[in-house]
Design brief:
heterodimer; A: mainly beta; B: mainly beta
Chain lengths: 113, 113
């Protein structure tokens, strides 16, 4: 019954690999997001997406790409992983529009070695 | 873009005392201000939010105040308990017509029994 679910919960991989993180929400929300939380706990927006528009934060390297097969899913694909990509990645969703509260997934701890 | 400043970065209080966390924002068009609580190893969870047409909102021991003129808002926790210990994040909508949240850098609250 988890509202926003992410898989995997932990991911350890080598530099240069390509990996994906999956996210699914069953709340019927219109908008989904990916956030990166670094070691200092800072939450930084990477992408937001609804069925009309993808907004990409300009600081996100183009090695990161969101993929949305349908409204309930927003997966994160990362190419050529680097050490600095190590972080916790949170998916979130909201009902869209201005002022919709976010529901976060449980996070994926990515470690690049 | 929106910039959200949060203070203090760490806060220790005795159990039963009050705790106050303050945030400022830069975009005068921002109109939605949520607060999230993140316990260690868990996801951020919405605890209270306020919209720009309201000056104060309370929910049991938690209250949020908003001063639109000064562009700052605050979280107040009264009668603190050990289970209030967590990292608290303020956030604001990026700007008019947007639905992306920009988060403050977080406040680590420790409630000492």
């Amino acid at each position: 019954d988890t509202a926003v679910s992410q898989t995997p919960k932990y991911l350890v991989t080598q530099m240069g690999n390509d990996k994906s993180i999956k996210c699914e929400q069953n709340l019927g929300h219109d908008t989904m997001y990916w956030y990166k939380q670094d070691s200092k706990k800072f939450l930084k927006i990477m992408f937001s997406y609804n069925n009309k528009e993808l907004i990409i934060n300009e600081t996100v390297p183009n090695r990161f790409s969101p993929k949305s097969p349908d409204k309930a899913h927003l997966n994160l694909h990362i190419n050529s992983l680097e050490l600095g990509d190590s972080a916790v990645y949170f998916c979130a969703s909201s009902r869209g529009g201005i002022g919709g509260g976010y529901t976060f997934g449980s996070g994926t701890r990515l470690t690049v070695v | 873009g929106e910039n959200v400043e949060q203070h203090p970065s760490t806060l220790s209080v005795q159990e039963g005392d009050s705790a106050v966390i303050k945030c400022t924002y830069s975009d005068s068009a921002s109109n939605y201000f949520p607060w999230y609580k993140q316990e260690l190893g868990k996801r951020p969870q919405l605890i209270i939010d306020i919209r720009s047409n309201v000056g104060e909102k309370k929910d049991q021991r938690i209250a949020v105040t908003l001063n639109k003129t000064a562009k700052h808002f605050s979280l107040h926790i009264t009668e603190t308990q050990p289970e209030d210990s967590a990292v608290y994040f303020c956030a604001a909508i990026v700007g008019a017509g947007s639905y992306q949240l920009t988060f403050g850098k977080g406040t680590k609250l420790s409630v000492i029994p």
